[in-house]
Amino acid sequence: MTLLQCRGLSRAWGAFRAVSDVDLDLAEREICAVIGPNGAGKTTLFAMIAGNLRKSAGTVRLDGEDVTGLPAPALARRGVARSFQITAICPGLSAVENVRLGVQARDPLRWRPFGGAARMRTGEARAMEWLDRLGLAGRAKELAGELAHGDQRLLEVAVALAQEPRLLILDEPTQGMSLEETRRTVELLRQVMAESATAVLLVEHDLEVVFALAPRIVVLHRGRKIADGPAEAVRADEAVQQAYLGGLG
Amino acid sequence: MSTLMIARRPALAALLAAPALVRPAAAQSGPIRIGVPTAMTGTWAALGAQVVRTCRLWAKTVNADGGLLGRPVEFLFEDTQGVPANCLRKAQEMVERDRVNILLGLMASSEALAVMPKLAEWNALFISSVNGAGSITAEHWVPNAFRSNISGPMGARALALWLRNAPQESFFSLSLDYAWGRSSVETFEGLLRGIGKRSIGSVFAPVGTRDYSSFITRVRQANPQALYIALTGDDGTAFLRQAAQFRLFERMPVVTETVDMLFTRPAGDAAIGLVGGSRYSFAFDHPANNDFVQRFRAEHNELPDTYDGEQWQACQVLAEAVRKAGRTETEAVVAALRDLEMTSVKGPLKMRACDGQAEQQGFVVRVARREGIPHPAPEVIATYSAAEVTPSCRASSFS
Amino acid sequence: MNLSDPRLVLAFIAAAGALGLVLPAHATTLLTEALILCLFALSLDLLVGHARLTSFGHAGPWGFGAYVAAGMLLAWQVPLPVAVLAAGALTALLAIPVGWLCVRTGGVAFAMLSLAFAQLGYAVVFKWNAVTGGSDGLPGVPRAGLGEFLAGREGYHLLVVAFLGAAYLLAWGFVRSPLGRVVAAVRENEQRAEALGHDPRRIRLVVFVLSYFLAGVAGALYAGFARYVSPELFFWTVSGHVLVMVVLGGAGTLVGPMLGALALFYMEHQLSALTESWGLALGLLFILVVIFAPRGLMGWLQAWRPRRRDA
Amino acid sequence: MDPLALLTLQALNALSLSALLFFISLGLTLIFGIMRVVNFAHGALFMLGAYVGVTAHNASGSFLLSLVAAPLAAGLLGLAFERTALSRLYAREHSAFLLVTFGLALALTEAIRLLWGADARQAELPDALSGIVFVMDEPFPVYRLLLIGAGVLCGLGCWAGLQRTRLGLLLRAASQNPVMTAALGNDVGRVRAFVFALACALAALGGALAAPLLSASLGLGSNVIIDAFVIVMIGGMGSFLGTAAGSLLVGFAQTFGNYYLPELALGMTYVVMIAVLVLRPGGLFGRPE
Fold first, then answer.
1. Is it true that domain B15-150+286-296+307-359 has CATH number 3.90.550.10?
2. Which residues of chain B make contact with C270, given a CB cutoff of 8 A?
3. What pLDDT, on a 0 to 100 scale, did the predictor assign at position D38?
4. Pick from B15, B41, B117: CB nearest C279
5. Inter-chain touch D16–B268, beta carbons under 8 Å
6. Do chains B and A touch (3 or more CB pairs under 8 A)?
7. Which residue of A11, B67, B212, B373 lies most exposed, with the fewest beta carbons within 10 A?
């Protein structure tokens, strides 16, 4: 069953067409990477899908429901989790608290004005598990704002994963991470994707990560979709090489 | 002879003292304590300064010749900034901590109205020395509350009586949009009808107005034969200065409910020709008044203004009542105050039992340049008997 | 010894209650007023400390609560505790439309908007003579339905202590609740809060309404305490005062602002008793405290232990 | 008085009030624009300007000298305060500035009362300035025309200063991006010190110019600050053009409001302020934070 169905997505600022007429379908549990040179419209596309940015044209359907006009919080409540190009975490709260907020995000009683102490404890335990899997358990009590840049990116991924989303959008998750951290993140993502029904939309410049994680690749160039298919086919595609890989063999 | 003591009882000791601090029985032996919670800072500071300096002068004078009933007089001053909430707190503190049962010199009418309902609970008495609001001795009056000063309506009444034989027929009124301003204009317009003159309109500037130009233009547009203003303090000064710059007074005389040097002096020459009621004037030729003016000039080498004179009178009234009562308990002094007759700086005076209002003469003064005085100052141009200017019992208007 | 441990704070409040029964009369009256100001500062801390919405107009709900309670007590002799809670509820009701307009902005725009609403309250109360008594205010507010003891000095003191304790528990519980944690998330990073499914404006509105409820309760308690309400309650200097209490005490700790309220009230009272120029001394004192005690009294008191910001 | 004369007169009244309000709020918007700081002590500085102005005028006999003495005194005080207190707080949150300037307001108001006493002070305008001129055969004070002229002059002067001079460029750069301005080798600390001193001087200039209309009194500070906040908010925080527009808007609203519907005047300013803030949180010309 198609989880996500985008038809004719466009976004223009005056004359500049950041994204023009992109169709994109994503099945449940499918992992798809979106690549393209800087300014190709990747982040704009994601922002429209996640409701952070109004669409100039086009529709988005999630689980068959038309969610075109909905703002980001409404989409998040429908099982869409994301990380941002510029890390968005709560600097004044501890690492474990950040992730616990992710766990709480899908708790039906997430807005209880009083009590909920028991929920807090189970939430915190669950959050510690996620931190452990990402190797951040040691720094659980530290303030998120005081973590190293790489750790903050890891933490943001952990927060998104803790939401156990149906659609996970990752905007250059390994950017700024060390090789070791990148390897650990890729390993974790592959494990999570195998275990859960989470579909993933991924933007990544590091092609090893792309080919390691995403069986399907979409290539954007100047806002248009120029390729969409299995990783091997796209790697060989003439137009992609010409536009993006610069004629790389 | 104990010297003048201004006791500043630091509450620190009281608040921290574990066992309640036992106060020596003040009733009959120690000094007679009088509480003065007034506005020493803030927008009313200038008026408060007059109340405080006159209380100190009176205490010094009384204590110099043996005090009251052989006991020294002691004033307790607290700063309320003219805010009712502060006044309540300070007054309650004086009553409960310092065993004060006599309150004088409150600044704003709203402060008096806040304190009066509590007098019974505190078993204390209050003599208004400067508050003008008519309602203090009318609908809001409570037993234990008295007023020695001339009220707003009484000042307006004196002015209206003087205007009977003034040529002007049509009047326009200007005041600030708050309780005192509205009641003053209302009373004046009622009195105008009483003397066969007519009011052709009134306007109330919002409180805090600084620029009166649009109101001056409105007065000129209405073009009355005379203008009545109920403005005092900074507002009075600002209006007089700006109106003079517009040459408004060349077109029409201006009259007011109460002339205080406080706002006429900073207005400078702009105040010359202003006619109005007066709650106290140093120019009133009377032995008791001349004595006070002479003492005041010796102490401060300047002329006593409205609030000085009225505070001195309140102290005189209190002293007379305490002497008559022979002791300082509240019930005794209140009983003595009722129907008390005496001579004050404003001549003969009688404290009315039914609403605590002092029946006294009314004065009308005009601001003029006078030799020997550096700034334009008021001169008395008419006096009216107590019967003519004092409203009936518990009323603030003249039927 | 963690200063923001609720059990300790409640013990502290209970002690203030007991102290009120022992102290000489006037000291108890002062302490009662100080505790009401603690409740007022606590209500503002929810906004300033937990939602990082600096309000310049907290005198608005304070004055509104006071006038509603005074009106009820004067007109229908409604029992005081009922009038206090009703005043709080009505203030909270008013806070919904006002809050909806205020929380869509942030920073100084929010501060100015809240200031404008409070000044509008001042203007309305000042002008509506028939109902609010205009500039003379409403004197003689009765402590209805309290019976002999509670209407007395000690009784009312205990009533205020009870309300303060309840309000503190309410605030402490809210801050630690799931919704309270979401408020912290919105404060820290709006974009992340949205990605977690929370509408920042609606979350801020909840805190705004709760803060106005408590401020309305505080105002109503003050009306019963002073038995008099006047337009000055709405004036911007009152907003400035309570904001100083929160920042002085240490915003975001619930206990800090209460300490700040006690400290400021006590300093002002002491200084004004000792010298006419208390303003000069207090002003210089503020300047020194801001420079040398960055996180207010709480920060200074907890200096020896790195602060955990999970609150 | 025929309607046209009335309208002209009221327009002139509004212009003179707008000029006064412009002087009052200019200092506030300058501080906010450059340093993102709300200056609670602005009213007290305005009052200080009135007192110093009156004293200098009486001492020297020259009104012009008072217009120099007042800003100078307040500017020096502002500089000293910025160097000793404010400069330590730039890394801190906004609330730190709020508390420090609240402290300065309290201390300064009391210091003025101690220095000058409680009574209001005034100085008589020289004859040249206290005359009148006939506008459609209705008298209008010369002093108010001077006020309007001074307002326009000061407005153009500040606008030119900000837009045309290197110092102006530096000020604007420091307000938009202090870090980058510092990186370009400018001592942003000194810029801030200069700006705060200049803002205090402007507030005091407003006081000195208002003294002939109001006389110097202790009540001056508290009322003025509200009007200044309203104007800066309506015009747009930190926007010079916005302050000029805000002053005109409030000047005309108050003048004509007081004339035609005095009943509502007190609340009207705040209704206008709420409307502008809700529709354009950044104010008419400002940029939202």
1. no
2. 10-12
3. 78
4. B41
5. no
6. no
7. B373
In a domain, A209, yes or no: yes
Q: Which of B56, B77, B80, B96 would you mutate first to test chain C, the one with the most C CBs within 10 A?
A: B96
Contact D114 C280 (CB under 8 A): yes
Give the CATH number of the domain where residue A198 resides.
3.40.50.300
* Range B153-283+362-389 has CATH code 3.40.50.2300: yes
| Integer Cα distance of B188 and B209 in angstroms | 22
* CB proximity D141 to B under 8 Å: yes
CA distances from C133 to B110, C72, C117, C228 (A): 10, 14, 20, 11
| pLDDT value at B284 more than 80 | yes
Is residue B339 packed enough to be buried (19+ CB in 10 Å), middle (13-18) or exposed (0-12)? exposed
| Residue B73 to residue B90: CA distance in whole angstroms | 20
A140 and A175 belong to one structural domain: no
**pLDDT tens-digit readout, B20-71:** 444 444 456 789 999 999 998 877 888 899 999 999 999 999 999 889 999 9
Residue D77 included in any domain: yes
Interface with chain C: mutation pick from A80, A84, A97, A171, highest number of C CBs within 10 Å: A97
In angstroms and rounded to an integer, the radius of gyration of the C-alpha atoms of chain D is: 19
Q: Is residue A84 part of a domain?
A: no
Alpha helices, H only, B246-286 = 261-264
Residue numbers of the domain that contains D210:
3-217
Q: What is the pLDDT of residues A134-178, one digit of tens each?
A: 888 999 999 999 999 888 988 999 999 999 999 999 998 888 888
Q: Please check whether residue B194 is in contact with residue B250, taking contact to mean a CB–CB distance below 8 angstroms.
A: no
Q: Do C228 and B117 touch (CB under 8 A)?
A: yes
Q: Which of D117, D222, D266 sits opposite B43 (nearest CB)?
A: D222
How many domains, in total, are found in chain A? 2
The crossing angle, in degrees rounded to 10, of helices C107-127 and D220-235 is 130
Answer with the one of A139, A164, A189 that is the final residue of a domain.
A164
Residue with tokens 């002059």: D153
Does residue A105 sit within a domain? yes
Q: How far apart are CA A241 and CA A36, in angstroms?
A: 11
Q: How many domains does chain D have?
A: 1
Judge if A159 and A177 occupy the same domain. Answer: no
ipTM of predicted complex? 0.84
**Domains in chain C, please, with CATH?**
6-310 (1.10.3470)
**% of chain A exceeding 90 in pLDDT:** 37
Residue A194, Ramachandran bin (φ over 0: left; ψ between -120 and 50: alpha; else beta)? alpha
Could you tell me which chains touch chain B, where touching means 3 or more CB pairs under 8 A? C, D
State the pLDDT at residue A41: 86
Report if residue D282 sits inside a domain.
no
Can you tell me which residue has the tokens 């002053």?
D247
Q: How far is CA D241 from the centre of its chain?
A: 14
Domain of residue A249: give its range.
1-79+167-249
Position B6 scores a pLDDT of 37
Do residue A43 and residue A121 come from a single domain? no
Indicate the pTM of the whole model.
Answer: 0.87
Verify whether the Cβ–Cβ distance B178 to C273 is below 8 Å.
Answer: no
Q: How many other CB atoms are found less than 10 A from the CB of residue C169?
A: 15
Using CB atoms, pick whichever of A72, A97, A119 lies closest to residue C194: A72
Q: Is residue D181 part of a domain?
A: yes
| Chain D positions in Cβ-Cβ contact with residue B210 (cut-off 8 Å) | 20, 210, 213-214, 223-224
Calculate how close chain C gets to B254, using CA atoms only, in Å: 26
Per-residue pLDDT tens for C140-187? 899 888 888 888 888 999 999 999 999 999 999 999 999 999 999 999
Q: In which residue ranges of chain B is CATH 3.40.50.2300 found?
A: 15-150+286-296+307-359, 153-283+362-389
Interface check C250 vs A, CB under 8 A: no
Q: Which residue in the set D40, D111, D289 is minimally distant from C280, CB to CB? A: D111
